[in-house]
Input
Amino acid sequence: MSATLGSQDTISGLLDITTPLNSAFKGIYMRSYAFVTLKDRLPGILTKVIDILSRDKEEIGSKYGKESLEELKDVIGCISKLKNEIVTNKPLKPLSPVPDDAQDDSKIWNDYLEETTKREGQLPTWFQVIWLYSEGYMYRRLAQDIALTRTLQCHDYFAKLKQNEFWHAKNNIHFVSVYLVDLFNRNENISTAERKHEFIKLLKLSLWANRCDLCLNVGTPSNQGGNPIELLESFESDILVNDSMFVWDLLNKNKTADIVIVDIVLDNAGYELFVDFCLAIFLIAQNLAQKIRLYVKRIPWYVSDTTINDFHWIIEKMKASSNNELKTLGEIASSHLKSHVWTIEEESFWTQPYDYPQMKIHDPVLYAKLSEATLVIFKGDLNYRKLLADINFAYTTNFVQALQGFSPTNILSLRTIKSNGCVGLQPGKAESLTEMDENWMITGRYGLIQATVDTGCPCAK
Output
């Protein structure tokens, strides 16, 4: 990937190279997506947030009161300063604690900053620090600016973008709803072979729904043309790793267990969340799981990541739909929540600076909780980056090896590739893709159904 510096030619330490092998991705490497993100995407996202807040100020004032308008000006000023800090590569600042907030994790972020400063011998700057940290820090700073107000603490500045993405995908949602309700109605007459076929089909639907990423598109909804069921076959060659058969064997083998728990660490709200609901409905209906735990983000994150409010909003829209099939699925989802067959899980770790190999040390309670599950499904690109600690491993690196000891249970990653970093590929595959398109890793065209399971999957050996 090539990039030009443009107006940032005053930033020191930049290197016109790709990320060295086995190194963490950083913005200093100008031929990496980390550089593109810090140079263009993050400032663009902040500009979008400022535009949204400015456009909606009357609505915000009506909802939260006159005082909120003054606080809104202050928030917009803070966001403008944050944007300037990024484009001029200033040092990262400690976060301000939020008074009387039991969930405030500013100390965790500040301790991480202090440790990074000691390790590097100086305050880390945006382009020189690990990309996974600097990008997460930006979203955490945004959340701080809102949390420190008196009137706007509950305001999700990404909410409308996520809701618009859901409505934008209404045709896709209709096709999938009709398909799943028909499948649900035929539940008792489905053979084992057909159950397996439909399970794999739903995995692929969940995979390709991950293309709908507002962070990638800086808040612009993705094009959702065509029937996603009918399009699956045409995408088959774009799945670079497909361990779906092994995942089926795992869940089907455990079907007679007292209780099979499947955890889904969610990614995007909107259409992707809807399809994840469909997968979860199927797992329960086919007795492949008896309990589904769905993990959401505690604060607005990476533009379109699912929060608990997004979760409830979509279910309510499904239940209120004039589309009978969508309404049926909404009622099923609501029923599963009421009966605790599904649970919504909020964990602070997902919005903290650590990668997943660090979880056992920094959040052993969550690690033990994941260990209770038969399978943990990690959705999306950011979860994949955190699984691999955002390290540029060789493309042929074994997936288990790249997880660096992170193994609470069987893991499945469903990810469309939208950033540098990918393992488990056959020799020569990445090179041939690069010959066709040097930007193949950031388009979302290609996907991974990548697992570590104990049923004979080659990646587990």
